[in-house]
Amino acid sequence: MRKHLLTFSLILVIILQICFPLYNVWSQEQILKHGQLIKFKIEPVDPYDAFRGRYVTINVESPSLKVPLNEDFSANQPIFVLLENDSSGITDMIGVTQNADTEALKMRIDEWSIDSDGEIYFRFPLNRYYLDENKAPIADKISRNFNKKNALISARVSQSGAIIIEQLYVENKPIEDYINELK
Questions:
Q1: What is the model's pTM?
Q2: Beta-carbon-side half-sphere exposure of residue 81 (alpha carbons within 13 Å)
Q3: For residue 167, what are the β-bridge partners?
Q4: Residues 14-53, buried b or exposed e (16+ Cβ, 10 A)?
């Protein structure tokens, strides 16, 4: 009986170890399929990480918002940055709430701080776009010439505020296509 219980426990652990990564992949794919499209202007830089390979660091403009000082924010709770697409399709950050139930387009932020003037500063949750190892050196050269008006990311955001990068654009073209045209 003890041997059967041990075998069952081992099989259960193996199944859970397989299901957990599969669930993570599935949930990310659901955001890409069903999430609302947003776009941010960026200032990319192309570093290298020995364990993860080549990527472009994403620096989004203005990762801070001014809020009224009479609003009470709990320090150990996530905030939700309210988003709105302007007429050109670029996403603006228009407000902050800690109400996760809001139906507004929102992005979840776990790391943030507020100063005495009511300015909330936060770390943008999207900070890396990974590239093919062969295209990365070219992207490095391109990134040195980026300016604010010709580089942006498109991302998908779920109703819960989870966000995933979909594509990095240079001159309104996916960076991979832009690199292929340069070759």
A1: 0.69
A2: 28
A3: 154
A4: eeeeeeeeeeeeeeeeebeeebeebbbbbebebeeeeeee
Q: pLDDT tens digits for the chain (183 residues)?
A: 788 888 999 999 999 999 999 998 898 888 888 887 877 777 655 455 555 566 777 777 666 666 665 567 777 778 888 888 888 888 888 878 777 777 677 777 777 777 777 777 777 777 777 778 777 777 767 766 665 447 788 888 888 888 888 888 888 888 888 888 876
Check the CA dihedral 128-130-136-139 and report its sign. Answer: negative
Question: What is the Cα Rg of the chain in Å?
Answer: 20
Residue 114 phi/psi, 5° resolution?
A: -130, 135
Which amino acid is located at 28 in the chain?
Q
Q: Which tokens sit at 154?
A: 């498109």
Beta bridge partners of 25: none
For 108, what's the count of Cα atoms within 13 Å in the CB-facing half-sphere?
14
Burial class (CB in 10 A: 0-12, 13-18, 19+), 72: exposed
For residues 57 and 55, give the distance between their C-alpha atoms in angstroms, rounded to a whole number: 6
Are the C-beta atoms of residues 8 and 133 closer than 8 Å to each other?
no
What crossing angle do the helices spanning 175-182 and 136-143 adopt, rounded to 10°?
Answer: 100
